[in-house]
């Protein structure tokens, strides 16, 4: 149960947490599906919820609920990847996945934001692609039709399942690669190859782990490359971790978008700042370290300065 004097919605979310916690198995089933559908439905309407003001007990419940959601989502993806993999042409049956339409909407949203800053990326990485890499598939099929995609996941079995899905499509199989490695172990010379890196919401379910991944990317991505992150806003923060713009040291935050429809994730777009050593080697000085982007704050026409964050709501944002 939640702390005293919480509002009705938070109380409902805490009650759903208790019911989900009592489940023996989070694999897809009528009972599991019903509870998570109720949870997502409750979180969708806009709500002025500030997670920093929750009491300690409710914060613990929220953190645990995010972990449960992550486990259930992973099991759901494996379940449907197995089903899709049984078809001769798996990509012809993607609509069997119950949230496929949400992925189509999210990919369109992310592409509309991305093309303002990197319209024709040559090489794209997706970190945390999982057994059902729908974002990569939709992006490569519908939007970035000439880009090469490197998909990273720590789980080799997930990559094996994902690779099977695209094997029957010669174009995607040629442009998609799957790497079974912890992103923290991917060296800088590899990360510097990418024009755009997507970071999945389920990478780093604990915010401290996510920040370590972001720091690793910030140290090793090429200056000017784009980082696309998924966050959450309002009651949706009970489903996914929150990434605050102020946490993105080494990046210039370009825009933040908070959907109000059934697309759950917020989207954060950031550009890698110039590396300090790049300018030291060129004799630029004196150098001041920018407290907001963690890099240079001197002589680059504001490139490294934090932009005013654009917070848009639903259809009010024109991409």
Short summary of the structure?
It is built from ten helices and eight strands. With 319 residues, it is an alpha/beta fold.
Descriptive labels:
alpha/beta; Rossmann fold; 8-stranded mixed sheet; 10 helices; 8 strands; globular
3D structure, described in words:
An eight-stranded mixed beta sheet has the order 3-2-1-4-5-7-6-8. The longest helix has 30 residues, at 56-85. By secondary structure, it is of the alpha/beta class. Helix content is 39%, strand content 14%. It has two domains: 8-92, no CATH class; 96-273 and 301-316, Vaccinia Virus protein VP39 (Rossmann fold, 3-Layer(aba) Sandwich), CATH 3.40.50.150. Mean pLDDT is 86; it is low at 277-319. The chain is globular and about 50 Å long. The chain has helices spanning 8-21, 30-43, 56-85, 100-114, 134-143, 156-166, 170-175, 188-191, 207-220, 276-281; strands at residues 123-127, 148-153, 176-180, 196-199, 226-231, 251-258, 266-272, 311-313. It is built from ten helices and eight strands. The termini are far apart. Keywords: S-adenosyl-L-methionine, Transferase. Its EC number is 2.5.1.43.
């Amino acid at each position: 149960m939640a702390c005293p004097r919480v509002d009705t919605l938070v109380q409902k979310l805490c009650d759903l947490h208790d019911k989900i916690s009592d489940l023996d198995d989070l694999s897809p089933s009528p009972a599991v599906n019903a509870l998570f559908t109720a949870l997502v439905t409750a979180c969708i309407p806009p709500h002025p919820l500030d997670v920093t003001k929750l009491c300690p007990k409710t914060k613990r419940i929220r953190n645990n609920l995010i972990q449960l959601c992550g486990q259930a989502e992973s099991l759901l993806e494996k379940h449907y990847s197995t089903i899709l993999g049984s078809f001769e042409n798996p990509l012809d049956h993607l609509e069997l996945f119950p949230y496929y339409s949400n992925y189509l909407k999210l990919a369109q949203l992310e592409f509309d934001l991305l093309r303002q800053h990197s319209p024709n990326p040559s090489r794209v990485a997706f970190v945390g692609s999982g057994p059902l890499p729908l974002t990569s598939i939709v992006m490569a099929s519908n939007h970035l039709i000439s880009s090469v995609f490197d998909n990273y996941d720590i789980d080799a079995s997930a990559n094996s399942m994902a690779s099977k899905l695209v094997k029957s499509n010669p174009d995607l199989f040629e442009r998609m690669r799957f790497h079974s490695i912890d992103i923290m172990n991917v060296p800088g010379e590899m990360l510097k190859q990418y024009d755009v890196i997507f970071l999945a919401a389920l990478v780093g379910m604990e915010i401290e782990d996510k920040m370590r991944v972001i720091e690793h990317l910030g140290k090793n991505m090429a200056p000017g490359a784009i980082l696309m992150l998924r966050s959450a806003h309002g009651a949706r923060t009970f489903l996914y971790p929150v990434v605050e713009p102020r946490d993105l040291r080494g990046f210039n935050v370009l825009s933040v978008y908070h959907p109000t429809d059934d697309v759950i994730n917020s989207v954060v777009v950031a550009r890698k700042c110039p590396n300090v050593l790049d300018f030291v080697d060129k004799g630029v000085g004196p150098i001041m370290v920018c407290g907001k982007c963690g890099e240079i704050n001197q002589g680059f026409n504001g490139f490294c300065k934090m932009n005013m964050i654009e917070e848009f709501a639903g259809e009010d944002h024109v991409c």
